[in-house]
Structure formats: structure tokens, C-alpha cells
Amino acid sequence: MRTADIRALNEYHHWANGRIPAALTQVGYTCTSGEPRSQIFWQLLVHIVNHGTQHHTEAALLLTGYGASPGNIDLHLSPLGQTNR
Hints:
By secondary structure, the protein is mainly alpha-helical. 56% of the residues lie in helices and 12% in strands. The chain has one domain (3-82).
């Protein structure tokens, strides 16, 4: 991870700590194996976003390989991202 990324995550952590209720700072969940776990909210949020990015990239790569590229998959350029203009 780059220094700039670590700095940005640290800044988000400080920002979020002042806004997220104490009950949400540690989130409990159950893994697909049935094992209970908990994680700090902002770390879980970053993981969810990154994991989604991984799947979007894999799907775009597969589609492109079959000659059916989805085109630009950036949210701000997609029809969904254009609805807020």
C-alpha cells in the first residue's frame, strides 16, 4: 500500500471516528463458515468497496476477452452516476 493511501485511510479514520456512533465502531458479523467475527467499521467499509471493485474488474476483463467490453466502468461516467446531475 502506498504512503498516500495509508495517509488517506488514516484521515478517513479520524473523520469517521467523530461521526459514527460508538455502537457502530465495532461491527459483528458471521462468516460463511459460521464463525462469528467483528471488525472496525471503517475497515469493513473499505474492504466492501475494494471487494466490489475486484469483481467489477474481473467481470469487465472477462467480457472484454469475449469481445463485449462494458466500456468505461467508472461510476461518474455510468448512467447511474449521471442521475445526480
